[in-house]
Every structure is written in structure tokens, then in C-alpha cells.
């Protein structure tokens, strides 16, 4: 009996603590924006550096939803995000053409690389282009791991296969993980297979993997990030002002400097190259 | 109020369950200070009647008056329920100490802590279980648990208590001790009570009046001696221990005495019926005497017949003797008499019983 | 093997150094799941008691539905709650998607059928005449219901444990309706998924150990209460 009473008291106390201790969501609502972006920007740690700066300067609370580029754009199409930071240029062009976005600005790039076991069974190290490298993997029947998650990386990979004239889907040597970049790299390391990855994630995880860079530097392997503001004509609830503030922040000179320096200390080389104001053509696109 | 005033009066009480009428009581009265037993076999409707009397069955229809006030609205039902108590076959104790269990009805009534403490201790004393006050209900023996359940019911000082076979799950010594205490407490507190039981000895011991139930109806209702000795039908007769229920033909009726013919025998007893009619009658086994010689000369018993002992069945204190005198009879003898008479299966003896020991149940064509 | 040792060492280090971020994540996990459990207790115990005591046609169907709901997959709940809370969804005006409030709602939806189902079972397991006995003691209907719940408290405590265990360890709904926003809606499970997605297995492992310790601590507390109440 007594214990029961004590327990009820405890419950009541805990309830009270929690009710008063919770962050009040309503007050933050008007001053918050939803940023739909790719896992690679979050996983590399770049957003953890940039967003606190933006929040401090603008007073907005940024709700970062890190998903694949495909899902990020789907959120944009439904009006469930205020601004996008994505890296899937072909899909982005379609997105703009359909009128979901108002402005799309180049922010930065890094590059994709093909990694695999150092023994390189398909001998792609000597390949001249990325297309050539993929052909060799296909011909030798060496295991290739695909994200298979409709992310920007996956879109890039599909584009490369198409360019090589190969249909990998259904082949015995082609496996889809359905996982994020970090986990896919780990699967590739475990299974001693090849995979396409962005350089930033690879560098962040390199020490645990035992995978080597076997193909890099091809213009086709560039990984370009754009920031897209959304069209309130489609969805009036979109926080256009907040979205514009974030987009302007991303291409500002100060932010671009931060991007250029990010990762230098830890990895010896930058993970992203600032490109604001440049024409896409100058990157070979 | 006088002893004759009806404390609880019920009319046309009916309970329908699943489209079947399981209880039909045209009228029922419980008097002040009275202990009434409901007896009958399992399924006769004793529990249903108790629940209906306590207003715990929603499906009951009929009118009820308590001290002359009708119980109809929700409010009057609730007020009524607070003046009674009920004890079930299972103790149904709460998962708490004996003290808290006995206090529960008082807590429900919002009494002060001090009052509760006083009342609970008083009640525990009444039930001789003060030493168990702090024990968890889960650690009680079956007898202690049922005792706690009774104490919980009496703690609220009910004006009326309904007891639904409270002793049925207990072993004989425990049952005996608890019954003795209940008898004493019912007397001391002058609480009116309705006790459902299928044990006629329990009913005889505790009650002022007995009501026999069968298939949802009260078939006989009266003082225990009347019900025991003058059952209204074969059902009541067999249920109250009248093992000799016989049927014969009336051959003579004169000055209030009947003579019946049954097998080769002529049986005489007081009663009235037409000659040629058949009559059902009964004799309690303990009223039958057995002897080795024809006692015609020295006995006042009018009914004496030769008989053969078919079987002797020990039933504890008594031996149950099955006799054949052209019709079957059952008699009880103590072990002592059995030895004195040198009785054995197959032996020829004489049975005798007084005309007044015979009770006629009914006659007809 | 190295990973296990490293992860364990890191978990201890994070705990002992009271790492601010890990501490905040742990506290948020607790806040969200405890609040959700409390809400589910209120909803689940009241609806479960009602369901156990009331008699109406279709009761069996509803009890079956509740029992099915006890195994509701968190991702399914997450998806439905997300759709309802979308800006352009039916409850979009609340503007609570990607907030701890949304996570509490989703977790409460997961835990309520668990608590409700266990409540129905525990109340129905009480002796059938107990209800009548309580009424015969002079109780009002409300008093009767409260006493019945009190009588069923030990199995109900198991319901609390099951509900809490279900929500603190779920990730599907939290990540969908919360979004795993750093410093805002990131809880132990979503952080674990993210860290392992990034390949930071030692960190993921450390977070898992904290989660396990937390579950253990709460269940240990509740089990102690349960055992203290129970004789022998």
C-alpha cells in the first residue's frame, strides 16, 4: 500500500519535471526552417559546423532532415521543406523545370571516387576514364556494391552505368545495399567489393576500411551541390524568407571560406571546394 | 419496530439471463433481526437471489422496499447498498493487509483515519483476529481469509448481511469454528441475514427460517422444524434428508386417521384423503426403530412390520440400514445400538414407527 | 573484437566525462519516452479498464484489434504520424513535425495499445465477483474502477515496463517524425543509427550501451517495486 503511494508520487513528480522541462516547440515554429539535404553533407560533419553559425546570425532554428537527394526533392515537391541542399543535377533540372523551385544556386563540389580492395581484381587502376573502369568491373564480374537508395550518389552511379552502356541490375556481381554511404563503404570493405563514394565520406572513414582509391579525377565524377529555394506558389506554407536566408548564407563569401577550409586540419586536404558564383560549365558540366 | 415488520420486502422479483427466466419470486420478506437460510442444490438460484436482493444484478425487475421505502432510483439503490454487506463463497480479499481489508468498506465511506482504526480493531477483536492485523492477505489460510472477508463485511456495521455459501470451501474444523463465531456475532449485533447454503445442517443451526429453492423459485418457506418435518413435496423431502418417500393407496379414512396399503403392509398416520386415492408420504430415517422381536405388545407405535436387512452402510457416527419390508426403508442406528442388537446383513428384524412420524406430502388420483 | 573493447571504453569515457552532447541526447531520450509512456498510461489504462468492464457487441473484435496494436511496427506509426503532421496534412496547422512533441505523439501511439492490452488482460484476470464485492462494500462506480486498477497493479507494472521498453528502443518512428535534428530531436536510437551509418561504430556502440544501461536501470527500478509488493 505504502509503496504504491510512493510510486504514484514518483510518477507525478516525473511528469511535472518533464512537462516543464521540455523545449517549447510552438515558440520556435515561426522562426524555424526545414532543410532537406543529403546524408553526405551531414555525415561529413560540414552541416554541424555551418548550421550553428547560420542559426546564430539569422535567429532561425534549422531542422535538418538528412535523407537521399531523391527523397529531399520529393519533400520539396510536397511543400514539406523550405530549402534543399542536394547533389543530383539531372533530377534538380527536372525539379526546376516543373516549377517547384524558384532559384537554384551552385554552392560547392567535391568529387566521387571509385574505391575497392587494394588487390584490384578488375585492374581499374590503369583505366583512363570512369566509364572504362566500370566496363572492366563488369567484364571481370568483380563484385560492385551500389547504394540502391535513390540518393544523389546512386543517381550519379546509374548515370555512369548508362554512359558505359551496361545494365548492371540483376547481374550476379551487382548488389544493392539500400544503406547510407558510410554503411555501404563498410559492406564493400567486408565483401572486398568496389563501390562509388563521395570523397568526403571516404576520407572520414578511411582508417577503418582498408579500401583504396582506384579511380579519381574524371570530370564525370564531380559531385556538385546546389541550394534550391522553393516555390510558394505551389505550397503557400513554405517559409520562403527563411529558405532564402539559408540559401544566401550558403553562397556568402564568409560561408564559402568556411567550406573551403573544412576538413583540412583533420584530413590534410579540403573535403569540399567552394563554387558560389561560378558557372557550371567551368566545372566541366 | 416490531419483530414482525418486514425489513426488506420484495414483490414480483424476476431475473432474465440470456432470454431465460432464471429467478421468479412473487414475494419475499426478511424481518428485522432474522436469519433466513436459502437452501437448495447448486443452480437453484440462491446466488442469483442474493445478488438481486443486494441490487447487484442489473437485469432484475420487480419492486423492493427497505424499511417501507421503495428502492428504485440509482440514488436510493446506492443508499440501500451502503446499509448492507455481502460475503461471497471466495474471500475476494484485496491485495493488502488484513487491517486494510477490514478497513476498505470504511475507507470507501470516507471515514476519518481515527474512526477507521477504532472500528477495525473492534471488528478484529469480535472475530478474534487482532494478531493477524498486519499480515498480508496473500499469506492467510483459507479459514483466515474467509474470516477476514466476514470481518470486512461486519466492519461497516450493516443492518443486513447476505452470505453466499461462505463456508463451502473450508475443511470441517475450520468451518465449525467460523460458524460458531458467526452465530455468536449475528446474535450480538442483531444483524438480519440471508444465508445461502446447500448444507441443511448449517441452515438448521444458524437460521430462524428456511426457504427451499428449486429452479429459480422458492418452493417452501417456513421455520426449520416445519421444513424439515413437513416438506411440501418430494424434492424438498429428499433435499432436507427425508430419505423415505413412499407412495401408497388409501384404503380407509376415519377420524383424521388414514390407512394406506403398500406392498403387504398397512400403514396408519394422521391425515385426510379420499378412499382409493394414492398418497405420497415420508418418514425421517431417525424416526424408525429396529428390534429383534415383534414389539407389538409393549410399543405404542401403530406401524410394525417384519423386514430383512439388505445393506448396512457406515456414515460416521451413524450406520445407515437399508431395509426391505416389501417396500424399501432407510433407518439410522448408532454404532452402539447396532452392536447391541447383533444386526447383520440378511437378518430378519421388525421395524416400527409412530403414526405421528409419518408426514403426508400430497394425495390424488 | 577491437570494436567491442573500443566501444565499451568509449561508452565509459563518455559517461564518466559527462560529454555534454551525449548527456543531452540521453536526457532527451528519457524525456520523450517517459512522457510518451505516461501519456500512454493515462490513455491505455482508462481505455483498457473501460474495455474490460463494459459489455457491448463487437467487444471481442475491438480487443483483438488492441492486441494486434500491441505489435504495431514503429515505422508504420512513424509514417502515419508524419503524414498527419505534414504542413499540408490534416494537422499541419499545429506545426509540430520534426519536434520532440511529434516524437512523443508517435511513441505514445506505439505504447498505448501495449498498455491498453495489458490492462484489459489484467482486469479480466481478476476474480469476476470482485467487482460485485466492491460494489457491495458500498463503492460508487468510480471507486470500484479505481480499486480494480489498484488490484491489478502488479501486472499493470509489467505493462509500464513493456510500454517504456517499446518506445525507448524504437527508432523507426523517432527518425521519421523527429528527423534526428542535432541538439533538438536527436535521441539515443536515432543517433546510434546515424553514427553507424557514418561508420563510427565505436560511437554507435557507446550509445547502444548507454541505451541498454538506461533500459536496465528503469526496468530494475520497476521490477524492484513489483517484487517488493509480491510476497515470498
Which class do the helix and strand fractions of chain C yield? Answer: mainly alpha
Assign the CATH class of the largest domain in chain A: Alpha Beta
Low-confidence stretches of chain C: none
Taken in chain order, the helices and strands of chain C follow as HHHHHHHHHHH
CATH homology-level superfamily of the domain at 25-185 in chain C: MetI-like
The biggest sheet of chain A, with number of strands, parallel, antiparallel or mixed sense and barrel status, is:
10 strands, mixed
Number of DSSP E strands of chain C? 0
Largest sheet of chain C, if any?
none
Most extensive protein-chain contact, per-chain counts: A-C, 44 and 33 residues
Number of contiguous helices of chain A: 13
Low-confidence stretches of chain A: 23-29
N- to C-terminal separation of chain C? 42 Å
The count of β-strands of chain A is: 10
Task: Draw up the topology in text.
The complex is a heterotrimer of chains A (285), B (365) and C (232).
Chain A: H1 2-21, H2 25-29, E1 32-38, H3 39-43, H4 46-58, E2 61-67, H5 69-77, E3 83-86, H6 89-97, E4 101-117, H7 130-140, E5 144-146, H8 152-164, E6 174-176, H9 181-191, E7 194-198, H10 199-209, E8 211-215, E9 222-230, H11 240-251, H12 253-261, H13 264-267, E10 273-274
Parallel strand pairs in A: 1-2, 1-3, 5-6, 5-7
Antiparallel strand pairs in A: 3-9, 4-7, 4-8, 4-9, 4-10
Helix pairs in contact in A: 7-8, 9-10
Chain B: E1 6-17, E2 20-31, E3 35-39, H1 46-53, E4 60-66, E5 69-70, H2 74-81, E6 84-87, H3 98-108, H4 113-126, H5 142-155, E7 160-164, H6 172-189, E8 192-197, H7 200-206, E9 209-214, E10 217-222, H8 224-229, H9 234-239, E11 244-254, E12 257-262, E13 265-270, E14 278-283, E15 289-291, E16 303-315, E17 318-324, E18 328-334, H10 335-340, E19 348-353, E20 358-364
Parallel strand pairs in B: 3-8, 3-9, 6-7, 7-8
Antiparallel strand pairs in B: 1-2, 1-4, 4-5, 9-10, 11-12, 11-14, 12-13, 14-20, 15-19, 16-17, 16-19, 17-18
Helix pairs in contact in B: 3-4, 3-5, 4-5
Chain C: H1 2-16, H2 20-53, H3 59-69, H4 74-85, H5 100-125, H6 130-136, H7 141-151, H8 153-168, H9 172-178, H10 188-197, H11 201-229
Helix pairs in contact in C: 1-11, 2-5, 2-8, 3-5, 4-5, 4-9, 5-8, 5-9, 6-7, 8-11, 10-11
